[in-house]
Design a protein that fits this description.
191 residues; mainly alpha; Four Helix Bundle (Hemerythrin (Met), subunit A); elongated
Length: 191
């Protein structure tokens, strides 16, 4: 497993990946980890025995989302790597240009889909943070607040990455469908 230091070094490097989409998933995973921590601590505290079952379920859900966000990180890096590879294809002849353009569009579609999925996961983290707040473990209030902030940041950053790719996509139907999904996620987060 890569250390956080190694990831941050890679993120700071001139390499095209990891980038913002990847970092957004890490921020979401941090939020999920905080939710899991709050729920786990609450579940074993005798003062919250009446909430222990809910807290254990919440911790399990947060652990699942953390793992999914870490998988989404890899997916985002691969998707953007596909864009980089497609952009590097030769374009000396009309045939090469056409093949390259098609590959670039396919890669951009994938590069928009990956952060859209991450945005969905980030909304899930936000929803779990709301439930963690209902555990009313006031000793861990700042952790719940941080989890919510991280989830919102992850969703916003993921949405930005989707929209950046939309600027270059020529498939208007795909852009419209993904934009509609993004607006629904953002609306759910605001509600």
């Amino acid at each position: 497993m890569e250390t956080i230091e190694a990831y941050l070094e890679a993120l700071a490097s001139p390499a095209p990946t990891p980038g913002g989409g990847s970092a957004a998933t890490i921020v979401g995973a941090l939020g999920a980890s905080l939710v899991a921590m709050v729920a786990t601590i609450t579940s074993v505290n005798p003062a919250y025995a009446d909430r222990a079952s809910d807290a254990r379920k919440l911790a399990a859900g947060a652990d699942t989302l953390r793992a999914e966000l870490l998988e989404a990180r890899i997916a985002d890096e691969r998707a953007y790597g596909g864009v980089v590879a497609a952009m590097a294809l030769p374009k000396s002849t009309p045939e090469e240009k056409a093949a390259r353009a098609e590959r670039v569009q396919d890669a951009l579609a994938g590069a928009a889909a990956a952060p859209l999925h991450a945005a969905e996961l980030a909304l899930g983290v936000l929803q779990l943070a709301v439930r963690a707040n209902l555990l009313e473990n006031h000793h861990l209030q700042s952790d719940v607040i941080c989890a919510s902030i991280f989830a919102r940041a992850s969703l916003a950053a993921s949405a930005a990455n989707v929209r950046v790719n939309h600027a270059y996509l020529k498939n208007a139907e795909l852009v419209e469908t993904q934009e509609s999904a993004l607006q629904a996620l953002e609306g759910a987060a605001a509600g």
